Amino acid sequence: MADTSPLDTDRNHLLEFLKDTTSFLDRLVTEKVDSKQQLLFRAQYHEDLDGAWKEFQANWDLSLAKKAIERTDDKALRAAGLHGAQLRLKLRLIRDLKDIFYRTGGTGVLRRLFKAVDNLLGSLGAVAGVDHALEEIKDLLNDLLVDRRRRQGLFDR
């Protein structure tokens, strides 16, 4: 009988989160518009964004993240809130914000979603040593978002 941890289900949820996040970011970079056909990223960066995303995809290795999550000790996952009800709540918030973004569009809700993703990625990186590449590319996308909260300046065109 193989040794299994009570947190194996949570580890699987964390791995699915990484897959879903990568897929979501791929959709954003590929489409570059929201459900209302509003531009998400500053147009002057589109070509460089495409190149950066291709590099990320070529270098991101989900199997390494999986190994890092699998070898992370249960106590460390618990200490970081990456288990049980805490993890379920974090994942639910991300899922709900993603659903709102798909329905309503807008960079405001996308920024909130990125913040929630950032919190989980940061904890996962700190305790499991998961490569920070996904967090870095997500941060870059956040920095390139068009800002509709104020009058557009030259930087936002």
Give the biggest beta sheet: none
Number of helices: 7
Number of strands: 0
From N to C, what is the helix and strand string? Answer: HHHHHHH
Give the averaged pLDDT, no decimals: 91
Strand content: under 5%
Note poorly predicted spans.
151-157
Topology of helices and strands:
Blueprint: H1 8-31, H2 46-59, H3 62-71, H4 74-79, H5 84-104, H6 107-128, H7 133-144
Helix pairs in contact: 1-3, 2-7, 5-6, 6-7
Key features?
single chain, 157 residues, mainly alpha, 7 helices, 0% strand, globular, disordered C terminus
Account of the 3D structure:
With 157 residues, this protein is mostly helical. It has one domain. The chain has seven helices and no strands. The protein has helices at 8-31, 46-59, 62-71, 74-79, 84-104, 107-128, 133-144. α1 (8-31) runs antiparallel to α3 (62-71) and α6 (107-128) packs antiparallel against α7. It is globular and about 50 Å long.
Concise structural overview:
The chain has about 160 residues and is mainly α. It is about 70% helix and about 0% strand.
